[in-house]
Design brief:
Radius of gyration: 18 Å
Distance between the termini: 49 Å
Number of strands: 3
Helix content: 40-55%
Largest sheet: 3 strands, antiparallel
Strand order of the largest sheet: 1-3-2
Number of helices: 4
Strand content: 5-15%
Shape: elongated
C-alpha cells in the first residue's frame, strides 16, 4: 500500500447524510449547529448536474452532457449515483429509431439542492460573521 487512502467518490468526512435522514430546517442551521452539506450532491460534477437539471423539467442526455461540459462516461457514472440516492429519474425511449435517455430531478432531488445551497450560504454567512467580529 502506498500510504494513501483510496477515497474514490466518497464524500468528505464533514458531509452529512445524502437523503432525507435529517430534520428539515427553515432558515438554515441553528447557531450552535454546523450546516449540513449533502454528500450525494457535494461532488462538483454532481452539483453541476443537479444545478443544470434544476432549471428544467427534463433534459436529453446529450444536452446535459454538453451543458455541463462533461463526457458521456462521467455523466453516466454521476447520473447513476444521483439515481441511487433518489435524486434523479432516468427515462429511456426512442426518437424515431434512435434510442434516447432523458434525465430529470425528482422532488427529493430538488429539495436536496435547496438544502445544500442553504448550507453553503450558512457557511458564507458564518465566515462573514467571523471576519466581521475579528475586525471589530
Amino acid at each position: 500500500m502506498n500510504g494513501k487512502a483510496d477515497l474514490g467518490d466518497a464524500p468528505p468526512p464533514d458531509v452529512g447524510p445524502a437523503r432525507d435522514e435529517r430534520p428539515a430546517q427553515s432558515g438554515g442551521a441553528a447557531p450552535d449547529e454546523a450546516p449540513v452539506l449533502d454528500g450525494a450532491i457535494h461532488h462538483p460534477t454532481r452539483l453541476t448536474l443537479v444545478a443544470f437539471l434544476s432549471a428544467c423539467d427534463e433534459a436529453e442526455f446529450a444536452a446535459v452532457r454538453d451543458g455541463c461540459r462533461i463526457s458521456d462516461s462521467v455523466l453516466s457514472k454521476n447520473a447513476s449515483a444521483l439515481e441511487a440516492a433518489g435524486y434523479l429519474h432516468v427515462r429511456k425511449g426512442h426518437v424515431g429509431k434512435r434510442p434516447r435517455t432523458w434525465l430529470s430531478l425528482t422532488p427529493t432531488g430538488r429539495r436536496a439542492l435547496v438544502r445544500h445551497l442553504a448550507a453553503l450560504q450558512d457557511l458564507v454567512d458564518a465566515a462573514r460573521g467571523a471576519a466581521g467580529s475579528a475586525g471589530a
